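Internal ticket #5521
Category: modeling
Description: The requester needs a full-assembly model to guide mutagenesis choices. All entity lines are attached below as received. Residue total reported by intake: 924.
Assigned to: D.W.
Attached entities:
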Amino acid sequence: MKRDEIKDLYANAKEYENKEVCIGGWVKSVRANKEFGFIDFTDGTCFKTLQIVFNKNLSNFEEVSKINTGSTIICSGKIVLTPLNKQPFEMVATNIDIFCATDSEYPLQKKRHSVEFLREIAYLRPRTNLFQAVFRVRSCAAMAIHMYFQENNYVYVNTPLITTTDCEGSDQMFKITTLNFNNLPKDKNGNVDMSKDLFGKQSFITGSGQLHGEAFALAFNKIYTFGPTFRTENSNTKTHANEFWMIEPEIAFCDLEQLMDIEEEMLKYIVKYVIDKCPYELEFLDNFVQKGLLEKLNKLLSSKFVRIDHSDVIDILKKADVKWEFEPQEGGDIAKEHEKYITEYFNGPVFIKNWPKDIKAYYMKLNDDDRTVAAVDLEVPGAGELMGGSQREENYDKIIKRCDEMGVDKNTIDWYLNLRKFGSCVHSGFGMGFERLVMYLTGVENIRDVIPFPRTPQNCDY
Amino acid sequence: MKRDEIKDLYANAKEYENKEVCIGGWVKSVRANKEFGFIDFTDGTCFKTLQIVFNKNLSNFEEVSKINTGSTIICSGKIVLTPLNKQPFEMVATNIDIFCATDSEYPLQKKRHSVEFLREIAYLRPRTNLFQAVFRVRSCAAMAIHMYFQENNYVYVNTPLITTTDCEGSDQMFKITTLNFNNLPKDKNGNVDMSKDLFGKQSFITGSGQLHGEAFALAFNKIYTFGPTFRTENSNTKTHANEFWMIEPEIAFCDLEQLMDIEEEMLKYIVKYVIDKCPYELEFLDNFVQKGLLEKLNKLLSSKFVRIDHSDVIDILKKADVKWEFEPQEGGDIAKEHEKYITEYFNGPVFIKNWPKDIKAYYMKLNDDDRTVAAVDLEVPGAGELMGGSQREENYDKIIKRCDEMGVDKNTIDWYLNLRKFGSCVHSGFGMGFERLVMYLTGVENIRDVIPFPRTPQNCDY
């Protein structure tokens, strides 16, 4: 039962001229009169659909004429080039087997559905044009990421999801257990005895693979992770999910300037790859989701990203003739409204670097001014912060001092701190939220619509 | 501070002849007399090391001569071709900066360490030859998998890790929570009130993305997942870990025979890719881990995998002149000893297909004999079961009947069962444990040694 694929028809239309093909797929819509009819048909292999022409010579002409959206059919027929039509070719059907006919119970009828409604049928929404485009871009962007890093000789490392190491704060991590909640073992003080759990202690699912990634960078020079991460944040915003994918490269013998070079090069590589591989999808998204999407992406390719110190950003914000919700402050954080202003001010992507040490993590390299750390966030127009990275503190004494100043528990990260004694080197890394990237690439504004089955507070269906 | 890379030296040695380079990396060993010395040097970019020659013209000749294994140095010097030596070139150092000198506290001294010892320093073991080889092969195999599927127009789908859907049995899934174990909210019956948890109900981390993958296959035709999965099994064997990575492709309009075609093609693609990309690593593994590894891999490429029914395998086992620990039985499972015998019997990979329905899952396609299901396991010499797959039951009434017969709770999978009403089609899929694959590719026999930071019962360090 070898089948032809619509993707291949579009790629090699000429070769299929007057050829017999057989394709299994699904009806998007049908219109017919008493003599003949047309089916808008997809097999899922391509964003573009195939038009099937059928006529009353079909033994099941009546049934086919009345077939419902979403029905499965197996069609045989001849490919005819139609250079004057909107579609470059169509299939003239000789046989149409109806494998599974849907009825009016089928939730996706031929009309526009709201994204809110579609979220409630997450298992069916990938069949709609919007999600066909989004999830194909997502897949393509993932491949671009692997290609960029592998072509540049990075080693892909699968850092552990289950962990007892506290990277980003254990209050933000999900606890995991095999114990029975209704019958928890207790120690002699009446507290739950986690030593009875599978790992013999409390374990978590992780919010970052960075610390483990650093250990591998000091062995393989350049590594990247690409996997799921978790946060327990109880916030219902357009940009937060409790499960999301992250890319975390880590590079030995690399300082902050070189890190920015890598971030810029990687982002351009991904954007170029997606533009090349997903022309139909981006055209659709440009038309129906974000006007100007393609222009935005093409512009990024030719732009040189601005690099500016955090303190200079604050100066610009202070001088701006804007009534801020959060007043910009020296030594303070950059709010969403500031991110937006600064990318519009420079009309392109902006690296904000050398952040006040008090609002950043203990592992970031302390600058000579003793006031800032060698951290950098990349802000992009329309999406805000896309990547966050830093040069890491490679000096053992200094990182111990920072841990103590910031009240970091050194017990679970002793091995990580030891990396500063055992072959330490200048090294840097960054994290990129994969969903943020997909939102940027597709113009989709809600993170729930770029994740196959999103997990947000009170929402863990499927 | 742009650095050259040893990887690049090996790839383009001629171009570097008499060129000045600067490389940051780590000392593997040093030997010196009063006049000159040699450093065996790695920068992590390549399995092969670089020999650095230095002499007493160096201002820090004394310190360099006494430098310890694992120390970080930044070396400048000229590349000299040495076609008569074991290495094709070496660096004549003009400057060596000692960035971080280790001392005798450094756990990896210049000697052979046991894998058991190395597991205890999982954050340092990637610096050893064995793990340099293993984790580079792992990275390379991951890339091969993405390339195979993307070249064949599969969509990469990130199925959720957090789930409330029961695919493989919730007793085998870790529970997750944000609640405080020592202060759990109770309902009026005194049971823990999971409605107070972040998702409003008990949620798990998943053991499979298959069910979600099927939903996407019915939209995109061909999809694959590649991500972490979890099992709570409390078993300490060489082949079990509580966290591992799986690849789960799912293909619409594909029956069991076609599925086997895909599995065979994919495995050969991966093996060929790794042979091409990791020659130094495989040579090392062939020499020091599994004699005959390369021969085994090359043989696989040219073999045609056997396809045989489960019942015929049982016949062969029964006729065998072997004293079994587990007597082979019609309708019974295939034990490890049987797997081993049957791959040796056929002297190559074997697909065992059409399994007794009672020992397989509810979602597998019931064959016309009403006794077997269209399931297939791939057994490979030396590694046992590498993949398990099946044609899926696409008929709504039949899958409901199977759920009822097998006592499967239909409540959490109603959406999955609905896929059989809404555009159902013949479809098939399989799962491959990524670590099993890496063990097969490297000859490593313990799963703990192919995972960067393995998680097994009582073992969740780092």
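Resolution: model delivered.
Comment from assignee: The CA atoms of residues 158 and 340 of chain A lie 34 Å apart.
Ticket closed.
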